[in-house]
């Protein structure tokens, strides 16, 4: 169920990386090495192209981009995020927990 956008789902190929997993119990970013290991486990590579980041509307995507920067990756924020992507009926939509 998607209460705001035209449809619920995610951009095909996207991997979920919940923003709150970038911070400790006090809300401070985890150490760079810990963040780096987290993003590598999710499939990011510092030697690869920039890591695309988005969220529902762009706010937590900016937080994710900063976490990637701290971890030594080059983030690329899609500021329009899911709201923009899903508003165009010609764009594909994936659902479920797999990147598909």
Write the layout of secondary structure elements.
Layout: H1 32-41, E1 51-53, H2 59-70, E2 75-77, H3 81-87
Describe it.
21% of the residues are buried. This protein has a two-stranded parallel ribbon with strand order 1-2. Strand 1 (51-53), helix 2 and strand 2 (75-77) form a beta-alpha-beta unit. It has helices at 32-41, 59-70, 81-87; strands spanning 51-53, 75-77. The chain has one domain: 3-Layer(aba) Sandwich (Oxidized Rhodanese, domain 1), CATH 3.40.250.10. 29% of the residues lie in helices and 6% in strands. The chain contains three helices and two strands; from the N terminus they run αβαβα. The radius of gyration is 14 Å and the shape is globular. The protein has 100 residues and is mainly α.
List its traits.
Oxidized Rhodanese, domain 1; 3 helices; mainly alpha; 100 residues; two-stranded parallel sheet; 2 strands
CATH architectural group: 3-Layer(aba) Sandwich
Unreliable residue stretches:
none
Gyration radius over CA: 14 Å
Q: How much helical structure, as a percent, in the residues? A: 25-40%
Task: Characterize the biggest β-sheet.
Answer: 2 strands, parallel
Number of domains: 1
Give a brief outline of the structure.
With 100 residues, this protein is mainly α. The chain has three helices and two strands; from the N terminus they run αβαβα.
